[in-house]
């Protein structure tokens, strides 16, 4: 039974992961100034460039991942981006005590998302992906 669900589940998995990234990319475009300000508030250099990179990864690579084009590379880029976001924006070890729990939860969620993305790096996008269509 599980083998017959492999391709639809792979597609649903890509869809659910993309729901996290694609709307966030659009949100960063709509709120570009706020995004730049938030990045700057974390002390990161070149916040405008960081915001552009975040938009390109979340929206651009997120859409590639959703449709299953270069799925392994897209998943790897998203996993690395998610790990970096966790380290820089959910650094629970360096926040006031009242923020520790929420930032720790978000940090570990980022680790879990990256772990799920690494499964796509290992196994690809499945038969319901552009990768599979372009291969045949």
From TrEMBL:
Keywords (A to Z) from UniProt: Cell membrane, Membrane, Transmembrane, Transmembrane helix
Annotated localization: Cell membrane
Chief localisation class: membrane
Single GO cellular component term: plasma membrane
InterPro entries in the cross-refs: DoxX (IPR032808), DoxX-like_oxidoreductase (IPR051907)
TM stretches of this protein: 12-40, 46-69, 76-95, 107-130
Membrane topology: Multi-pass membrane protein
Entry's family note: Belongs to the DoxX family.
Name under which the protein is recorded: DoxX family protein
């Amino acid at each position: 039974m599980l083998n017959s669900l492999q391709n639809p589940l792979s597609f649903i998995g890509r869809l659910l992961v993309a729901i996290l990234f694609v709307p966030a990319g659009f949100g960063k475009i709509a709120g570009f100034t706020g995004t730049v300000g938030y990045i700057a508030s974390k002390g990161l250099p070149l916040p405008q460039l960081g915001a552009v990179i975040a938009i390109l990864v979340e929206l651009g690579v997120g859409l590639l991942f959703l449709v299953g084009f270069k799925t392994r590379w897209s998943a790897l880029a998203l996993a690395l981006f998610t790990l970096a976001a966790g380290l820089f924006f959910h650094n629970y070890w360096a926040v006031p005590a009242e923020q520790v729990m929420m930032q720790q939860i978000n940090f570990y969620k980022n680790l879990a998302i990256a772990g799920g993305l690494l499964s796509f790096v290992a196994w690809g996008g499945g038969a319901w992906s552009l990768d599979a269509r372009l291969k045949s």
